Amino acid sequence: MRIKTLRTLSAVLLGASLLLTASTSWAQKAKHRIVFELTSENEEHWQALLNNIENVQKAFGKESTEIEIVTHGKGLGLIKNTTPLKERVLTIAKTGPRFVACENTMRRQQVKKEDLLPEAGTVDSGVAEVVRKQEAGWSYIKSGS
C-alpha cells in the first residue's frame, strides 16, 4: 500500500514540477504587445508618447516588447519627414517599435509615402488597425487628446 501511494505522490509531484517549469519558461518568453494610438498634433503629446515607449521598453526589456504606433488624423505629423522630433523617432524606431500612418488620413491630407520618414509604414485604416490589434490581444494606449 505505501509503495503505491509513494509512486502516485511522486508522479503527481513530477507532473506539477514539469507544469510549473513550462509555465515559468513561457512567462519568460512572453512578449508584451502594445499598440499606441496617436491623433494629436501637439508636440508635448508626441514627446509624452515617445517617453512612454522608452519607459515600456525599460520596464519589460526591448526584446520582450512588440510595439506599434498608429498615427492618424492630426497625429500623422509625428512621422512626416518634417517632424521636429525626427531624430528621436528614428532612434526609437531602431529599437523595434513600428510607426505606421493611416492611408485614409494620408489621402485626406494629400500626404505621399515619400513624405513620411523612411522607417514609417502604412496601414489601410488607422482605426481598423487599432481594432485588429485589440482583437489579437494587444494592450491599447491612447496618446494625446
SSE topology sketch:
Elements: H1 2-29, E1 32-38, H2 43-60, E2 65-71, H3 86-93, E3 98-102, H4 103-109, E4 121-123, H5 126-135, E5 139-143
Parallel strand pairs: 1-2, 1-5, 2-3, 3-4
Radius of gyration: 22 Å
Structure classification: alpha/beta
Task: Kindly report the average pLDDT value.
Answer: 88
Might you state the CATH topology name of the largest domain? Hypothetical Protein Ychn, Chain: A
Low-confidence residue ranges: 22-28
Q: Under the CATH scheme, which architecture of the largest domain would be assigned?
A: 3-Layer(aba) Sandwich
Global shape: elongated
Number of strands: 5
Spell out the helices and strands N to C.
HEHEHEHEHE
Q: Which homologous superfamily in CATH is the superfamily of the largest domain?
A: DsrEFH-like
The total of helices stands at 5
CATH class of the largest domain reads: Alpha Beta
Percent helix, as a range, is 40-55%
Distance between the termini: 70 Å
Explain what the structure shows.
The chain is an alpha/beta fold and 145 residues long. It folds into two domains: 1-30; 31-143, Hypothetical Protein Ychn, Chain: A, CATH 3.40.1260.10. Helices cover 49% and strands 19% of the residues. The chain has a five-stranded parallel beta sheet, sandwiched between helices. Helix 3 (86-93) links the parallel strand 2 (65-71) and strand 3 (98-102).
